[in-house]
TrEMBL record, chains A, B:
InterPro entries: 6-PGluconate_DH-like_C_sf, DUF2520, NAD(P)-bd_dom_sf, P5C_Rdtase_cat_N, TM1727-like_C_sf. It comes from Chryseobacterium lactis. Gene3D superfamilies: NAD(P)-binding Rossmann-like Domain (3.40.50.720), ProC-like, C-terminal domain (1.10.1040.20). It holds the Pfam family F420_oxidored. PANTHER family: CONSERVED HYPOTHETICAL ALANINE AND LEUCINE RICH PROTEIN (PTHR40459). It comes from the Bacteria. SUPFAM superfamilies: 6-phosphogluconate dehydrogenase C-terminal domain-like (SSF48179), NAD(P)-binding Rossmann-fold domains (SSF51735). Residues 2-75 form the Pyrroline-5-carboxylate reductase catalytic N-terminal domain. This is DUF2520 domain-containing protein.
Length: 249, 249
């Protein structure tokens, strides 16, 4: 099977790397950003182009959500399968006469961070059984965790991921801003952060909640509000309100 | 040195366990909740009482912030050292004529979750050099990470911990609420959550931010708002606003 990856960002890079590591040859990596494509091409030994899209059986589009539709029109071939990697788009956004699919890896990708691809859940949606079989087999080469998911479910998977990953990372950013402001090394907090995550492997997060809000410790809540301002204060208030609502305090 | 732990909650239990594991004998565990004290006493083989506080050189008060002052008055002895374990109280809240100290373990404690005490940072504040030496030596038996910290700094350490731990756990609760609502197993998200944390060991959280807000993906942000309501919607809006402010989007 001839496979082409379209895109040069974090997802494109890691998808290309995941396939290459498993010995699955890629026909081409195609995109606009020549500098990035060149880097990926050199590291992973895959031909690249910014102009001539190679003929393939499967095109995997790894670009930002708002570019998927436009990019999907580049593929003029009809007898092929085209999959996007977005968590929030329907497969019907793909605007060609080919067979359409979704191939969604549930992970946070940064180019500079190595990943264990085996643990990444893949969610697949296709138009027919044969394409499903093809994408399941392909994803199973990379990951131990391959599932089917329609667009409706995928939207909620993506939304959950925003809370459990994107927002969590932003809390780390705001936390570090606070500790930096007092010259407290953020490293102090890493064991606490590790434990916060390890806990949810054993205890429901709702039962693992600690801190002043769930104790309804009004004195500490007020003290903290005096130490904060701007967006961090907004976050502090909304999170505490949400905690207290959840526990009916 | 005779040591008494006061309290029967999560912190009291883990402090007692940490000392016991290192072969440091505890004279007594003292508190109000006989059922909990009895459980801890049986597991760790420490005498307990709800009525008669034993004579000791060091009392470590492990109770909720709002009870520390009241509980500290139980200790009528003068020639002894009394430490509380609160992140947000000054040592002067301790209301006796003894020497006062703070002995703050930066960790999230749940009784049912085992902990590696060696990794817990301890922050110590005392009235004099000798007490400091005593508490440093004691904490160093448990942990590899013992530091001095005055009340001002401790307040900010605690506040940072609320963002990096308590709020993060609450995001997991809200995330699970969303995935549960669609019968999506929360286990799917564990590799993503692990990676979110592993990333900050290598990349500044501010540089590791991914997701629709930092991409300013208005279509996805609007779609997600339609899927949410109540406190989760409030969190969604505040977090995205804060992300966009941080990156000046």
């Amino acid at each position: 099977m001839q496979i082409v990856i379209i895109g040069s960002g974090n997802v494109a890079y890691h998808m290309a790397k995941a396939f290459t590591q498993k010995g699955i040859p890629l026909t081409q990596i195609f995109g606009r950003n020549e500098k990035e494509l060149n880097k990926i091409s050199e590291e992973l030994n895959i031909p690249y182009s910014t102009e001539n899209l190679e003929d393939a059986d499967l095109y995997i589009i790894c670009v930002s959500d708002h570019s998927v539709e436009k990019v999907s029109k580049i593929i003029t071939k009809k007898n092929c399968l085209v999959a996007h990697t977005s968590g929030s788009l329907p497969k019907e956004i793909l605007a060609g006469e080919y067979r359409k699919a979704s191939f969604y890896p549930l992970q946070t990708f940064s180019k500079s961070k190595e990943l264990d691809y085996e643990k990444i859940p893949f969610f697949i949606e296709t138009e027919n059984e044969n394409d499903k079989k093809v994408l399941f087999e392909l994803a199973s080469e990379i990951s131990k965790n391959v599932m089917e998911s329609n667009h409706e479910k995928r939207k909620y998977i993506h939304l959950t991921a925003v809370f459990a990953c994107n927002f969590v990372n932003h809390l780390f950013s705001r936390a570090k801003e606070i500790s930096d402001s007092q010259d407290i090394p953020f490293d102090y907090f890493l064991p606490l952060i590790d434990e916060t995550v390890q806990k949810i492997y054993e205890i429901e997060p709702k039962l693992a909640q600690t801190g002043p809000a769930v104790r309804n410790d009004v004195r500490v809540l007020q003290l903290h509000e005096q130490l904060l301002k701007g967006e961090s204060l907004d976050i502090y208030k909304v999170m505490n309100h949400s905690i207290q609502k959840m526990y009916e305090l």
